[in-house]
Amino acid sequence: MSFSGFSEDDIRKLTKTQEVNKQHKVNKTPVKKVTFKSNNTINTPRSKNILNNTVSAQRLGEIQEEFKKLDAVLSTDVKILRQQIELASIEYMEC
């Protein structure tokens, strides 16, 4: 038999949770939070290795970005120098 769409099991579960809540209020015992400590701390060799790898990867990324910037600057400098050499050679040939 169901009561407004709820099965008997649902009603039993609801009343059980209500009873538990009432007991907590009567006893005034706070619900304790359970915290778990991880066994993997930063001091383990594997953790240190992973940390070193991530730091190395970040450094490598920064270095690659710097190389890209330097490559762009060098490309424009070479382009300007080639244009100047070409102009100088044309002027020399005209003389």
From TrEMBL:
Superkingdom in the source lineage: Eukaryota
Full protein name: RAB6-interacting golgin
Organism this protein belongs to: Asbolus verrucosus
Record lineage: Eukaryota, Metazoa, Ecdysozoa, Arthropoda, Hexapoda
